[in-house]
Protein backbone atom coordinates (compact mmCIF):
# COMPACT_ATOMS: atom_id res chain seq x y z
CA UNK A 1 0.00 0.00 0.00
CA UNK A 2 1.21 3.46 -0.88
CA UNK A 3 -0.06 4.88 2.41
CA UNK A 4 2.24 2.60 4.39
CA UNK A 5 5.28 3.65 2.34
CA UNK A 6 4.57 7.37 2.72
CA UNK A 7 3.66 7.10 6.42
CA UNK A 8 7.02 5.42 7.02
CA UNK A 9 9.06 8.20 5.41
CA UNK A 10 7.06 11.43 5.85
CA UNK A 11 5.19 13.21 8.65
CA UNK A 12 3.53 16.08 6.76
CA UNK A 13 0.10 15.11 5.44
CA UNK A 14 0.11 17.64 2.54
CA UNK A 15 3.52 16.29 1.46
CA UNK A 16 2.31 12.70 1.71
CA UNK A 17 -0.80 13.52 -0.31
CA UNK A 18 1.18 15.41 -2.97
CA UNK A 19 3.55 12.48 -3.40
CA UNK A 20 0.54 10.16 -3.42
CA UNK A 21 -0.73 11.79 -6.62
CA UNK A 22 2.10 10.12 -8.56
CA UNK A 23 0.91 6.76 -7.24
CA UNK A 24 -2.59 7.19 -8.67
CA UNK A 25 -1.84 9.33 -11.72
CA UNK A 26 -3.61 7.81 -14.70
CA UNK A 27 -4.96 5.00 -12.51
CA UNK A 28 -8.53 4.35 -11.47
CA UNK A 29 -7.25 3.71 -7.96
CA UNK A 30 -7.08 5.34 -4.54
CA UNK A 31 -3.92 5.82 -2.44
CA UNK A 32 -5.50 3.10 -0.27
CA UNK A 33 -5.69 0.62 -3.18
CA UNK A 34 -3.30 -2.35 -2.78
CA UNK A 35 -0.41 -2.11 -5.25
CA UNK A 36 -0.63 1.68 -5.62
CA UNK A 37 2.90 1.98 -4.22
CA UNK A 38 4.32 0.50 -7.43
CA UNK A 39 2.94 3.28 -9.64
CA UNK A 40 4.77 5.83 -7.47
CA UNK A 41 8.03 3.91 -7.89
CA UNK A 42 7.40 3.64 -11.64
CA UNK A 43 7.23 7.43 -11.88
CA UNK A 44 10.60 7.98 -10.23
CA UNK A 45 12.57 5.23 -11.98
CA UNK A 46 15.39 6.23 -14.28
CA UNK A 47 17.16 9.57 -14.48
CA UNK A 48 17.31 12.76 -16.53
CA UNK A 49 20.71 14.28 -17.33
CA UNK A 50 22.25 12.42 -14.42
CA UNK A 51 19.57 13.30 -11.89
CA UNK A 52 17.75 10.26 -10.54
CA UNK A 53 13.97 10.37 -10.68
CA UNK A 54 13.95 13.80 -12.34
CA UNK A 55 11.42 14.87 -14.96
CA UNK A 56 11.72 17.63 -17.53
CA UNK A 57 9.83 19.72 -20.05
CA UNK A 58 10.46 19.17 -23.76
CA UNK A 59 11.47 22.41 -25.48
CA UNK A 60 8.89 23.21 -28.13
CA UNK A 61 6.22 20.99 -26.55
CA UNK A 62 5.82 17.21 -26.47
CA UNK A 63 5.54 17.07 -30.27
CA UNK A 64 9.20 18.09 -30.47
CA UNK A 65 10.14 14.75 -28.90
CA UNK A 66 8.27 12.88 -31.64
CA UNK A 67 10.00 15.05 -34.25
CA UNK A 68 13.43 14.31 -32.77
CA UNK A 69 12.76 10.56 -32.94
CA UNK A 70 11.45 10.94 -36.50
CA UNK A 71 14.52 12.89 -37.62
CA UNK A 72 16.85 10.30 -36.08
CA UNK A 73 14.97 7.57 -37.95
CA UNK A 74 14.90 9.30 -41.34
CA UNK A 75 18.61 10.12 -41.01
CA UNK A 76 19.15 6.35 -40.94
CA UNK A 77 16.98 5.69 -43.97
CA UNK A 78 13.51 5.25 -42.44
CA UNK A 79 10.45 6.30 -44.44
CA UNK A 80 7.63 7.83 -42.38
CA UNK A 81 4.04 7.88 -43.63
CA UNK A 82 2.10 10.38 -41.51
CA UNK A 83 -1.70 10.50 -41.48
CA UNK A 84 -1.83 7.01 -43.04
CA UNK A 85 -4.04 4.80 -40.91
CA UNK A 86 -3.23 1.09 -40.79
CA UNK A 87 -6.21 -1.12 -41.64
CA UNK A 88 -4.71 -4.49 -40.70
CA UNK A 89 -1.47 -6.45 -40.45
CA UNK A 90 -0.64 -8.39 -43.60
CA UNK A 91 -0.25 -12.10 -42.89
CA UNK A 92 1.36 -14.76 -45.08
CA UNK A 93 -0.09 -18.21 -45.70
CA UNK A 94 2.06 -19.52 -42.85
CA UNK A 95 0.54 -16.95 -40.44
CA UNK A 96 3.62 -14.73 -40.18
CA UNK A 97 3.51 -10.94 -40.32
CA UNK A 98 4.58 -9.68 -43.76
CA UNK A 99 3.71 -6.00 -43.55
CA UNK A 100 0.63 -3.82 -43.15
CA UNK A 101 -2.31 -2.72 -45.27
CA UNK A 102 -3.29 0.95 -45.12
CA UNK A 103 -6.88 2.13 -45.16
CA UNK A 104 -6.48 3.35 -48.74
CA UNK A 105 -5.56 -0.21 -49.76
CA UNK A 106 -1.81 0.34 -50.07
CA UNK A 107 0.27 -2.65 -49.00
CA UNK A 108 3.54 -1.96 -47.19
CA UNK A 109 5.52 -5.20 -47.09
CA UNK A 110 8.23 -5.94 -44.53
CA UNK A 111 9.90 -8.85 -42.80
CA UNK A 112 8.94 -7.56 -39.35
CA UNK A 113 6.11 -5.42 -37.97
CA UNK A 114 6.40 -3.47 -34.70
CA UNK A 115 3.26 -1.95 -33.22
CA UNK A 116 3.24 0.77 -30.60
CA UNK A 117 -0.54 0.88 -30.71
CA UNK A 118 -2.29 -0.55 -27.67
CA UNK A 119 -2.56 -4.34 -27.29
CA UNK A 120 -6.32 -3.95 -27.82
CA UNK A 121 -5.94 -2.23 -31.21
CA UNK A 122 -3.00 -4.40 -32.26
CA UNK A 123 -4.54 -7.79 -31.48
CA UNK A 124 -8.29 -7.17 -31.47
CA UNK A 125 -8.58 -4.85 -34.49
CA UNK A 126 -5.54 -5.31 -36.75
CA UNK A 127 -5.29 -9.13 -36.62
CA UNK A 128 -8.02 -11.65 -37.62
CA UNK A 129 -9.17 -13.24 -34.36
CA UNK A 130 -8.98 -16.77 -35.75
CA UNK A 131 -5.21 -16.32 -36.17
CA UNK A 132 -4.71 -15.88 -32.42
CA UNK A 133 -4.99 -18.36 -29.51
CA UNK A 134 -8.40 -18.03 -27.82
CA UNK A 135 -6.93 -17.66 -24.33
CA UNK A 136 -4.65 -14.87 -25.58
CA UNK A 137 -7.56 -12.98 -27.13
CA UNK A 138 -9.56 -13.40 -23.92
CA UNK A 139 -6.67 -12.05 -21.85
CA UNK A 140 -6.33 -8.94 -24.06
CA UNK A 141 -10.11 -8.38 -23.86
CA UNK A 142 -9.94 -8.59 -20.07
CA UNK A 143 -7.11 -6.08 -19.58
CA UNK A 144 -8.28 -3.37 -17.19
CA UNK A 145 -8.14 -0.15 -19.19
CA UNK A 146 -10.26 2.05 -16.93
CA UNK A 147 -8.94 5.59 -16.78
CA UNK A 148 -9.86 8.49 -14.48
CA UNK A 149 -8.10 11.19 -16.48
CA UNK A 150 -9.58 14.30 -18.03
CA UNK A 151 -6.92 16.50 -19.61
CA UNK A 152 -7.68 20.21 -19.95
CA UNK A 153 -5.43 22.46 -22.03
CA UNK A 154 -5.86 26.14 -21.20
CA UNK A 155 -4.70 29.40 -22.78
CA UNK A 156 -4.46 32.33 -20.34
CA UNK A 157 -3.60 35.99 -20.83
CA UNK A 158 -1.54 36.24 -17.63
CA UNK A 159 0.38 34.10 -15.18
CA UNK A 160 -1.72 32.43 -12.44
CA UNK A 161 -1.27 34.31 -9.14
CA UNK A 162 -1.38 31.90 -6.19
CA UNK A 163 -2.35 33.17 -2.73
CA UNK A 164 0.34 30.97 -1.17
CA UNK A 165 3.10 32.54 -3.29
CA UNK A 166 2.06 35.86 -4.89
CA UNK A 167 3.52 36.85 -8.26
CA UNK A 168 6.40 39.25 -8.66
CA UNK A 169 5.47 42.80 -9.63
CA UNK A 170 6.99 42.40 -13.09
CA UNK A 171 4.77 39.39 -13.75
CA UNK A 172 7.72 37.13 -14.54
CA UNK A 173 7.48 33.41 -13.71
CA UNK A 174 8.72 32.40 -10.26
CA UNK A 175 10.31 29.00 -9.42
CA UNK A 176 6.98 27.41 -8.49
CA UNK A 177 5.52 28.35 -11.89
CA UNK A 178 8.25 26.23 -13.49
CA UNK A 179 7.36 23.10 -11.51
CA UNK A 180 4.43 20.73 -11.29
CA UNK A 181 1.76 22.32 -9.08
CA UNK A 182 -0.52 19.92 -7.20
CA UNK A 183 -3.91 21.20 -6.02
CA UNK A 184 -6.60 19.61 -3.83
CA UNK A 185 -3.88 17.47 -2.27
CA UNK A 186 -3.97 18.63 1.35
CA UNK A 187 -4.66 15.08 2.52
CA UNK A 188 -4.77 11.56 1.12
CA UNK A 189 -8.38 11.30 2.30
CA UNK A 190 -9.29 13.99 -0.26
CA UNK A 191 -7.82 11.81 -3.01
CA UNK A 192 -9.65 8.76 -1.72
CA UNK A 193 -12.94 10.67 -1.64
CA UNK A 194 -12.38 11.89 -5.22
CA UNK A 195 -11.78 8.29 -6.30
CA UNK A 196 -14.87 7.02 -4.49
CA UNK A 197 -17.13 9.51 -6.29
CA UNK A 198 -15.81 8.41 -9.70
CA UNK A 199 -16.15 4.74 -8.76
CA UNK A 200 -19.88 5.45 -8.42
CA UNK A 201 -20.04 7.16 -11.82
CA UNK A 202 -19.75 10.79 -10.70
CA UNK A 203 -16.91 13.15 -11.65
CA UNK A 204 -15.01 14.20 -8.52
CA UNK A 205 -16.53 17.23 -6.83
CA UNK A 206 -13.04 18.21 -5.67
CA UNK A 207 -10.75 16.75 -8.34
CA UNK A 208 -7.07 16.03 -7.98
CA UNK A 209 -5.33 18.62 -10.18
CA UNK A 210 -1.77 18.58 -11.48
CA UNK A 211 -1.09 21.95 -13.07
CA UNK A 212 1.91 22.72 -15.28
CA UNK A 213 2.80 25.95 -17.07
CA UNK A 214 5.29 24.87 -19.76
CA UNK A 215 5.44 28.39 -21.22
CA UNK A 216 7.02 29.58 -17.94
CA UNK A 217 10.16 27.75 -19.10
CA UNK A 218 9.56 27.79 -22.85
CA UNK A 219 8.17 31.25 -23.77
CA UNK A 220 7.85 30.33 -27.44
CA UNK A 221 4.75 28.27 -26.64
CA UNK A 222 2.58 31.38 -26.13
CA UNK A 223 2.45 35.05 -27.20
CA UNK A 224 4.27 37.60 -24.95
CA UNK A 225 2.57 37.89 -21.55
CA UNK A 226 0.33 34.91 -22.24
CA UNK A 227 0.76 31.31 -21.12
CA UNK A 228 -0.41 27.78 -21.76
CA UNK A 229 -1.55 25.80 -18.74
CA UNK A 230 -1.78 22.02 -18.80
CA UNK A 231 -4.24 20.46 -16.34
CA UNK A 232 -4.04 16.74 -15.64
CA UNK A 233 -7.14 16.04 -13.60
CA UNK A 234 -8.95 13.08 -12.09
CA UNK A 235 -11.17 11.33 -11.24
CA UNK A 236 -13.63 11.15 -14.10
CA UNK A 237 -15.36 7.88 -15.07
CA UNK A 238 -15.51 6.89 -18.75
CA UNK A 239 -19.25 6.34 -18.42
CA UNK A 240 -21.28 8.58 -16.13
CA UNK A 241 -23.85 7.27 -13.66
CA UNK A 242 -27.08 6.13 -15.26
CA UNK A 243 -25.28 5.31 -18.51
CA UNK A 244 -25.01 8.98 -19.48
CA UNK A 245 -22.27 9.91 -21.95
CA UNK A 246 -19.93 12.89 -21.82
CA UNK A 247 -21.92 15.47 -23.77
CA UNK A 248 -20.88 19.11 -24.07
CA UNK A 249 -22.84 20.05 -20.96
CA UNK A 250 -21.16 17.37 -18.82
CA UNK A 251 -17.73 18.31 -20.17
CA UNK A 252 -18.15 21.98 -19.38
CA UNK A 253 -19.71 21.32 -15.96
CA UNK A 254 -16.67 19.27 -14.93
CA UNK A 255 -14.21 21.82 -16.35
CA UNK A 256 -16.05 24.56 -14.43
CA UNK A 257 -15.58 22.52 -11.23
CA UNK A 258 -11.84 22.26 -11.94
CA UNK A 259 -11.58 25.99 -12.69
CA UNK A 260 -13.52 26.86 -9.51
CA UNK A 261 -10.99 24.85 -7.51
CA UNK A 262 -8.04 26.62 -9.14
CA UNK A 263 -9.76 29.97 -8.49
CA UNK A 264 -9.73 29.18 -4.75
CA UNK A 265 -5.94 28.87 -4.86
CA UNK A 266 -5.29 31.57 -7.47
CA UNK A 267 -8.03 34.23 -7.57
CA UNK A 268 -8.37 35.75 -11.03
CA UNK A 269 -7.53 32.53 -12.84
CA UNK A 270 -11.00 32.15 -14.39
CA UNK A 271 -10.94 35.71 -15.70
CA UNK A 272 -7.55 35.07 -17.34
CA UNK A 273 -8.79 32.13 -19.43
CA UNK A 274 -9.08 32.88 -23.15
CA UNK A 275 -9.52 29.30 -24.37
CA UNK A 276 -9.81 25.73 -23.12
CA UNK A 277 -9.74 22.25 -24.62
CA UNK A 278 -11.43 19.49 -22.55
CA UNK A 279 -10.44 15.87 -23.19
CA UNK A 280 -12.46 13.31 -21.20
CA UNK A 281 -11.59 9.56 -21.20
CA UNK A 282 -13.75 8.87 -24.31
CA UNK A 283 -12.08 11.82 -26.08
CA UNK A 284 -8.61 10.49 -25.25
CA UNK A 285 -9.63 7.10 -26.65
CA UNK A 286 -11.16 8.53 -29.83
CA UNK A 287 -8.37 11.00 -30.64
CA UNK A 288 -5.25 9.17 -29.48
CA UNK A 289 -6.29 5.51 -29.58
CA UNK A 290 -5.84 5.09 -25.83
CA UNK A 291 -8.07 2.19 -24.70
CA UNK A 292 -10.57 3.55 -22.20
CA UNK A 293 -8.56 6.79 -22.32
CA UNK A 294 -5.80 5.03 -20.36
CA UNK A 295 -2.46 6.81 -20.84
CA UNK A 296 -0.61 3.56 -20.08
CA UNK A 297 -2.59 1.42 -22.61
CA UNK A 298 -3.78 -0.56 -19.57
CA UNK A 299 -3.68 -0.26 -15.80
CA UNK A 300 -0.29 -0.50 -14.06
CA UNK A 301 -1.64 -2.87 -11.42
CA UNK A 302 0.53 -5.74 -10.24
CA UNK A 303 -1.53 -8.31 -12.17
CA UNK A 304 -0.79 -6.41 -15.41
CA UNK A 305 2.95 -5.81 -15.00
CA UNK A 306 6.25 -7.58 -15.64
CA UNK A 307 5.69 -11.14 -16.98
CA UNK A 308 1.94 -10.48 -17.28
CA UNK A 309 2.20 -7.43 -19.56
CA UNK A 310 0.34 -7.59 -21.89
CA UNK A 311 -0.27 -11.30 -21.23
CA UNK A 312 1.52 -14.20 -19.54
CA UNK A 313 4.07 -15.84 -21.88
CA UNK A 314 4.08 -12.72 -24.10
CA UNK A 315 5.95 -10.17 -22.01
CA UNK A 316 9.08 -10.44 -24.19
CA UNK A 317 7.71 -8.20 -27.01
CA UNK A 318 7.07 -11.13 -29.36
CA UNK A 319 3.42 -12.02 -30.03
CA UNK A 320 1.49 -15.15 -31.10
CA UNK A 321 2.02 -13.89 -34.67
CA UNK A 322 5.65 -14.57 -35.75
CA UNK A 323 7.26 -11.33 -36.92
CA UNK A 324 4.81 -9.06 -35.03
CA UNK A 325 6.13 -7.23 -31.97
CA UNK A 326 4.49 -4.97 -29.39
CA UNK A 327 6.62 -1.95 -28.51
CA UNK A 328 4.25 0.55 -26.88
CA UNK A 329 3.06 1.32 -23.35
CA UNK A 330 1.06 -1.91 -23.22
CA UNK A 331 4.35 -3.86 -23.23
CA UNK A 332 6.87 -4.25 -20.38
CA UNK A 333 7.73 -2.11 -18.40
CA UNK A 334 4.63 0.00 -19.09
CA UNK A 335 3.74 3.62 -19.71
CA UNK A 336 5.57 6.90 -19.33
CA UNK A 337 7.76 8.95 -21.67
CA UNK A 338 10.89 6.85 -21.27
CA UNK A 339 11.19 4.71 -24.40
CA UNK A 340 12.10 1.57 -22.47
CA UNK A 341 9.47 -0.65 -24.11
CA UNK A 342 10.46 0.55 -27.58
CA UNK A 343 14.19 0.10 -27.01
CA UNK A 344 13.74 -3.37 -25.56
CA UNK A 345 11.40 -4.41 -28.37
CA UNK A 346 13.82 -3.11 -31.00
CA UNK A 347 16.63 -5.20 -29.56
CA UNK A 348 14.47 -8.35 -29.65
CA UNK A 349 13.35 -7.58 -33.23
CA UNK A 350 16.96 -6.98 -34.40
CA UNK A 351 18.01 -10.28 -32.85
CA UNK A 352 15.24 -12.11 -34.73
CA UNK A 353 15.89 -10.17 -37.95
CA UNK A 354 19.44 -11.51 -38.14
CA UNK A 355 18.05 -15.02 -38.47
CA UNK A 356 15.61 -14.24 -41.29
TrEMBL record:
GO terms for molecular function: oxidoreductase activity. It is found in: Mitochondrion matrix. InterPro entries: Amino_oxidase, FAD/NAD-bd_sf. Residues 35-178 form the Amine oxidase domain. Pfam families: Amino_oxidase. Signal peptide: none annotated. The keyword Cytoplasm does not apply. Its main location: mitochondrion. Interacts with COX5B; this interaction may contribute to localize PYROXD2 to the inner face of the inner mitochondrial membrane. Belongs to the carotenoid/retinoid oxidoreductase family. This is Pyridine nucleotide-disulfide oxidoreductase domain-containing protein 2. The lineage of its organism: Eukaryota, Metazoa, Chordata, Craniata, Vertebrata.
Amino acid sequence: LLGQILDHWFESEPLRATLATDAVIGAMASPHTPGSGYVLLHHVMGELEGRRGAWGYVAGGMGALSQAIAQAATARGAHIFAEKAVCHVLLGRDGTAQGVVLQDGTEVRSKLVLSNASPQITFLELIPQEQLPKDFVQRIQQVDTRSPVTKINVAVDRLPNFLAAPNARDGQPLPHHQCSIHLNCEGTQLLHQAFTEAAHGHPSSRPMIELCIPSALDPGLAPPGCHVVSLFTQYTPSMLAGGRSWDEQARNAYADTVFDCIEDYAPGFKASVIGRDILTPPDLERIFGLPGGNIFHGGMSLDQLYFARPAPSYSGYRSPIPGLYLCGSGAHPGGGVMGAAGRNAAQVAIKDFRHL
